[in-house]
Structure formats: C-alpha cells, structure tokens
Amino acid sequence: MNFIIENDEFFKHFLSSEPKNNNVIENILVSEQIKKLSDGINVLNTELQNQINLKHKDLLSQASCSSTLETQLVDIQNHVQSLHSGAEKIKRSITEPYKILESDIHILQRLHSACHILRYVALMQQWLRELDKTSDQIAQAKIINNLTELVQDPLLSDVEIISANIRQIHLKRQQLSKLAKSQLKQAVITENKTQMMTFIQILANLQILNNEIEELVKSMINDISMSIKTILTQSEDKSDSNLSKNRGRGGPGGANLTNTITISKEKLWSALEGLFADKMYQQCKQIKLLESLLLELTNSTNYESLSLNFWNKAIETAVNEMKNSSPVFQNIFEEDYPCILKLYSELTRKLNTKEFVPKQSMMVAWENVYLSKSLSKFLDKLTEMFSEPNTYPSQENIDGLTRIISNELSVALIEETLSNAIAKNVAKAVKSFTLKCENIISTAPETAHTIGVTNASQQFNVQLANSMLYFKTQLNRMLTNMNNTLSKNTVQTIEQSLKNVDQAISTIISPLVDSINSAIETIILTIHAEPDWNRLQVPTKKLTMNCSPYMRELIEYIARAYNVHLSLFNPSEALSSSCARIAIRCIDLFIRHSSLVRPINEGGRLRLQADYRDIEQALCVIYPQLQSLGTPYRLLKSMGTLITLPPSEVVQSQLVGSSVPHSTVLLMLFSHASPDLQSPYQTTNWSIEKLSKWFDEHTDEKNRIELISGSLQNYLTKVRKNNVTVYDPVYVLMASLINNE
Asked: With 0-12 CB in 10 A as exposed, 13-18 as middle and 19+ as buried, what is 725?
C-alpha cells in the first residue's frame, strides 16, 4: 500500500518536503484529484486497521502503562503539596525569630551609637577640661587637633548639647592657628630659634605646618618681587619735556608734549645692592635656619630641599621682574650685566652653602648681549686701527685696544665663567688682529732680498712685525699684572691665542730666513773650490791657523745679514726661532760639505778644524745660545774633534759611542782613502749639489748608509775585477763600521 502511495506522482506532491511542483496537479482534473484522494484515504484506513490487528497486544500494554503513570503522577502531586505545606511551616518558624532578631539588632545599633556618642562626648569634655587647665601652647595645639578630629565624626553633628563645645573648639583652633602663624613669621624674621621651634611644633600638632611653610615661602618671594618693582619705579625720573616753554600754545601746530624717562643708574644699583646684600641675604639665612629646624623636629624628608627650592624661586622671580621691566631698564641690565652677576656672586659668597649657587642659565640672554657688545668694542677698535690701507697699526692704537681688553677683563673678574667668556672674545680679537696684519704683509719678491740694504717692502714688514710683537708684549704685560686675579683658564686662553701672533711674525721673517739659508749654502759650496786643502803645511802652532777664504766670506755674510736685516726685528720668540733655524741649517750644511772635501792633507784638516771654531763664533752673532740647540751643537763640537783624528781612531770612537751619525763619519772617511775608493757623488755621477739635495730629501740614516754602501760595493767590484789582493785600509774600516751598524 505504502509502495503505491509513495510511487504515485500525485501523492509525491503531498509527501515531499521540497518545493512543490504544481504542474502535475494542474494537469489532472479536479474530479480525478478527488477520486485519487478518496482512494488514498481508503488505502490509509486499510493499512491502519492492519497495523492495529498486528500490534494490538503492544497497544493494550501501553494503555495499561498510561493508567499506572497517571496514578503515579497523582501521588507525586500529593507529595509535592505536602512538601510545600511543610516548607511554609518552616518559613514561618524562621521568619518570626528573624524579625525579632532584626528588631533587637536595630536596638543594639542605636544603643551602640548612643554609647559612641556618650564616649566621644565624655572624651571631648575630658580634653576640654585639659585644654582649660594647660597653658602650654604646644600641648593645646595637640589637644585641639585631637578635638578637631573628634568633632568631625558625623554622629556628633546632630547632638545639640555639644554644639556650643564644637564652636568653642573651632574658635580656639582658629585663634591658636592665627597666633602660631603670625608668631612663626616674626620668629623667622628675628631668627629666634626658640620661638621658631615652639611655633613649628604648634603648627605641626595642628596638622597645618606644610601649608604654613608654603605660605611663608610664597610671602617671601612676593616680597622680593614687590621690592624689585618698587626699586625700578623709584629709579625712574619722569618729567614733561617742553611743557613750560610751550605752555600757552594750543590748537593745530601746538606743542607736542612727550614724557621722557631718565634712569639714575647709581640709585638703581645702590637699591639693588641693598636688596641682595640685605633682604635676600637675610631671607636665605632665615630659610636655611628654618630648614634645619624642620628637619630636626619633624624627622621628615619633605623639607630637605626647602632652601634650594626657595633659592631657585627667589632668583627666578628677581630675574623675571628685571626682564619684564621697560626697554630702558633692559638696556641698562644688558650693558651692566657684570653688575647683576656681581650681586648674585657676592650673595652666594656671603651665604657660602651648596644650595645657594649662581643661576647664570636664567641670565643667559643678558650675558649673550653683553658678550656681543664686548666683542664689538674690540672689533670696532681693530677696524679703526686698520682703517687706512697698507698701514701698520701704531703703538697708540695698540695701547688703546689693550686698555679696552684690560677694562673688559677687569670688569669680568667678579665671576670666573664671565672672565673665561671675555677671554674667548679677547682670543677672537687677537685672531682678527693677526689676520688683518697678515693681509697687509708685503709679499713682493724684493722682500726676500738679503744683498745690500733693506728695501721699502722689507722695512714695512719689519715695522708690521714689531707692531705685532708690541701688541703681544702689551697683552703679556697685562696678564702679568692681573695674574693674581685672573683664573688659570682665562690666562691660558689668551696666551694660546697669542701664538697666532708669533706665527704671523714668523711668516714675515720666513722669506728672509730662506734667502739667508740659500746664500749660506751657496757660500759653503765654495768649500770644494778651495785649491789649498791638499797643499797646506802643518803649522808649528796649530792655534795660529787662519780661516779659509770661504769661511771669511761666510762670517761676513752672516754678520751682515743679521745686522742689516734680522736685527731690525725686535727680539721675540719668532725671531729667536728663525735664527735657530738659520744656525741649524748652517751647521748641517757645513758638517755635510766639510765631510765631502777631498783630497785633503793634514794641514787642510787643521784649517778645517779652525773653520769649525770660526763658524761657531759666526753663528753666535745671530743665535748666542748655540748650546740650547742640543744635538746640532753637539754634532758641531764632535766633528771639530773628529776631523783631525786618524781613520782608525775615528772608527773606534764611533764603535764606542758618539753623537755623530755613521753616515757623516763614513763620508768623512772617504777623504782618507785613495782615489780608487770614490765618494758617493762620484759613483752615481752626481754633482755635489745634487748629493746635498738628496741628503736633504732623505733624512733617514738607513737610506744614507745604503747610498754609501753602494760606493763601497762599487770599489769592491773594481778590486775584484782588477785582481787586487790588498784592500784600501780605509775601506776595511768603513766596512767594519757598516757591519756594526
């Protein structure tokens, strides 16, 4: 049956849960649809009857179970009603005692509040009696504070019986607080330590100490502010200009009345000095004393920075009041910034504690303007000094600049930081002076001429160098006079800047030095043109040996160059350094070329030794302190001794230890050898001038020894080529010396 219904397209339309397709029904007539529905109902009835017949036992069993279930449900309902009734009885047995207990609790609470009020009232009365009995204000303050905390209880606000007592407590608190505040201020002013301790304890017991200290500090700061405003106002002298002489004019074209303000600087600085030296000094002392007492009495860290905070606020207030003043005062504060700095510095020196130190960062604007104006004074004077082109500064102008520098440094002595800043300005002025001088140095070719008298360019450079030296001398004299007052950094800054002056003077002298050195080298080269080195006889008295012609010319030239050119420069470090350069170069060239002279006999060596003595005397003309040259002077003295010794003794002295370089000794030993052992300039086919230049360019001893070794190797090659069995004795000595190098 089910198969028939389920497979029928018509009934599938009713059995399916998917969207219905109405096309199948619409294609069947209504009468046919009714017939199919009737057939389907019959099929279902038949099927239902069959199922009942097949399963009637199961249906009967289920029907009996339903009856049993209904009976059990009725029993459960009865039990639930019984349980509900029991719960109601239990509820009634709990609720009634709870209400009674709640009522008792409420009564107990009211009793507790009443006891609390009675206890507080009794305590209040006890403290009030103690308050009336005691005359100790510190104890009164403690009692009043306790009473104040007591009456703040909200339960006591509605108790009318003690309302009068509460008003009395508030009144006494106000009276004692007012008294303690006023007396503490007075005690701080008078620095009465005992009273200060008393009223600090009173205010501490009243729990208002912090607020009162803040108010006290604020009052002092306001006092400083008002004092500065009053000083600024009283320093102004206002007057109506043109008022009397134009009185009576009116209408168009009448008088233009303007108010002019003049400032009495003397009155201003006198008043500010009094403020800092007296009022602010006393206030700082008072705050410091107050801080120490607070730390002692309260054992609190809240007051550890009281002095420092007061100092910062006081300085900030004072500076701000000055900064907010009129432009007229601002100009005064900028121009007289050292006066302001002096006030702060003297105040800190008087206080002499780590908390009270100058706060220059707050005054940096004034300082910058002051330093700028100070530098302008220097530069303006320099501009005036060099206003005319190609004119060296006169001593009068230099003295004027030195006075300005001295005045600025003297004003800045009040504070080391300002002094160092002014010193930097002085260094800038010195640098500017040096640059201006360098710009007008004559660089014409004739400035390097050392033949004949000085020309106009050289004379101008000499005067310019002497002016620069005079400027340096004046500044050094000023530093010497102020040495006990200027700081070490200030002196070092200025002295360091003066080195630029020495460098500029050296720049002027340097062309002359180069020209003199060149002429000296030309003269010394003529040593090799002397014909008598190998023909001179040994005199009976060695000390009677005359100097060589080239040496005579060299002595005359050195004396003339110094007297005509170098002596025109006033003595200075730059001149001394330049003369030392000439002496060192002359010694170096003379030792080098005297070592290269060959052939030379014993008489020639004695004359050469005399030349060593003569050149020492000649160099003393331009540089008297030859011994201070150190190594070059020792080398000159040593070579003067070695020049006459036999080769074996020369080598032995080198092996023992000598100040003369091996390369110099080796060059000298060539003059003792036979012509076959050629000198380095001969083996390299160089001129003596070229060899000398090579030595100037190669100062390393190793390179020089290698060049000399090449000459020895050349000799060895020739000897072997010629099958010579006996070596030159000097070669053997030179080879041993090189091997021991």
From this structure: exposed
pLDDT tens digits for range 386-395: 888 878 899 9
- Single pTM value for the model: 0.70
User: What is the number of alpha carbons within 13 Å of residue 628 lying toward its C-beta?
Assistant: 10
What's the token pair of residue 599?
A: 């052939």
d(CA 359, CA 354): 13
Claim to verify: residue 48 and residue 119 sit in the same structural domain: no
The reply to whether 99 and 152 lie within a common domain is yes
Q: What is the pLDDT of residues 624-676, one digit of tens each?
A: 999 999 999 999 999 988 998 999 998 888 888 778 899 999 999 999 998 88
Note whether 473 and 391 are same-domain residues. yes
- Residue 379 and residue 490 share a domain: yes
The domain in which residue 35 lies consists of 2-54
Give one DSSP letter per residue of 176-190, joined into a string: HHHHHHHHHHHHHHH
Asked if residue 106 and residue 9 are part of one domain, the reply reads no
Q: How many CB atoms lie within 10 A of CB 555?
A: 19
Inter-CA distances, 685 with 44, 94, 568, 667, 682, Å: 145, 139, 44, 16, 5
Domain boundary among 134, 157, 179: 179
C-alpha distance from residue 556 to each of 371, 455, 520, 563, 686 (Å): 55, 20, 11, 11, 30
Instruction: Give me the half-sphere count of Cα atoms (radius 13 Å) on the Cβ side of residue 492.
Output: 3
306 occurs within a structural domain: no
